[in-house]
Predict the structure.
Amino acid sequence: DGGITQSPKYLFRKEGQNVTLSCEQNLNHDAMYWYRQDPGQGLRLIYYSQIVNDFQKGDIAEGYSVSREKKESFPLTVTSAQKNPTAFYLCASSAREIGTGELFFGEGSRLTVL
Amino acid sequence: AQSVTQLDSQVPVFEEAPVELRCNYSSSVSVYLFWYVQYPNQGLQLLLKYLSGSTLVESINGFEAEFNKSQTSFHLRKPSVHISDTAEYFCAVSVAPGGAQKLVFGQGTRLTINP
């Protein structure tokens, strides 16, 4: 089955540690995204990538980094510079066809900073 | 820049009652509009979308939404809800045909169905 796989589903980290969240898709989509979800705030865009080896900052990129070395993979690193990293992180992808407008989401990774 | 406002953070209704989840958007250009649904501890799934054409769009599970350009609204409705409709619903707007589909999401509305 085609889809997006995020891992790990749950992650705990100590303050000052970097962590990397994995996102893999087999939908052959060009574009991939990372969103952060906090209660009552909806989804906020962290980074997105339209093509391999290229990515752009979203609305809340500070304290995060990404890479796009392969079409299928778009890992997100939450660095120690992120002031409030506890959140639910969602990865998504989309095709480039004009007007499709549909994002396909993974099941999310819940990060808790102890 | 676009913005989306969902007017209710929580909506409790009884099973088989009608429901309306309200969404208003702000944009200086033409928009595409979407409703996504999120079941507990899962990612989001597309429920329905308006790109062009008929202003009334429907989903396969009985939800419908109407694009109202003059009121800049895209409210979601269902005439009779079921327990399985319990979820969080997100309205979203995009003005990016082609290229990356950058969606701006509302804050979400938690729909709770009581028996």
Summary: Chain A touches chain B at residues 4, 6, 31, 33, 35, 40-45, 48-50, 56, 90, 92, 94, 96, 98-103, 105-108 (CB under 8 Å). Chain A has a mean pLDDT of 91.
